[in-house]
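We now fix the convention by which a protein and its fold are recorded. The integers have meaning only within a learned vocabulary of local backbone shapes. A complete example follows; check for yourself that the lines match position by position.
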Amino acid sequence: MKNGMSTNQKRAIFICAGILILLLTFFFVFQRNMETVLELETETNKYKSAVDYLSAMQMQVNEMQETAPEKQGEIDTYTQEFPCRMTQQKVIYNIYQMMTDTGVRITRISPGMERKFFEAGQFISLEGGENTSDAQTETVTGSAVEENPETKVSLDAMVGKVTTYELEMTGTRNQILKSVAWIANNLEHMAVTNLSFSFDSSTGKLTGTMRVNYFAMNGNGAKYEEPNISGIQIGTDNIFGTVK
């Protein structure tokens, strides 16, 4: 019997050692590298998605840049349709003009609180805010553009304001409808928000109230002009006197 290992035993040991090395290489090198590859692939896909998103955004930016001058012109035209501020004198002048043009008789005007409908480039909801009590009339002020509404500023700095006036009036059905159409067709932004009328059989006319929103845009650069009220007559039986 010879001492030492036989050739077959040595071969078996080498084979086992080779398999062990392969296993160790697989678990400690190859598998870890595969995990790194998968992580890198995931990161690559994430960055690819980000690049695709930014590329799509860039296309939209390019399209918007082409139409920006046109859109800016539309914005300027829209904001210029508002007076830079809406005073009670201006409101009364408009109401007087509506009365003379339609034939309705106004017997009472109740101004409400001035509220914001546009600020920081965003429209603000006006739901539930029509308070027309004389005791609660107030002016919303604060920013520089609100203190100097005729100053031209960017759209984001403009402040839109609205005041609701309640008008008590009497007129025929045709006259009431004409007054609604007069407000809707006026160049300045106004809006009828509520109508409440009842029929008076003794006069054959409707009597009730109409609520009207009057809008202004502080900072649109429009020059405010005081209305010419020299032709308005002040009477004793109503706020304007007899209209012919």
Observations:
- The first helix runs from residue 7 to 80.
- Helices lie at 7-80, 88-102, 144-147, 173-185.
- The two ends are 143 Å apart (CA to CA).
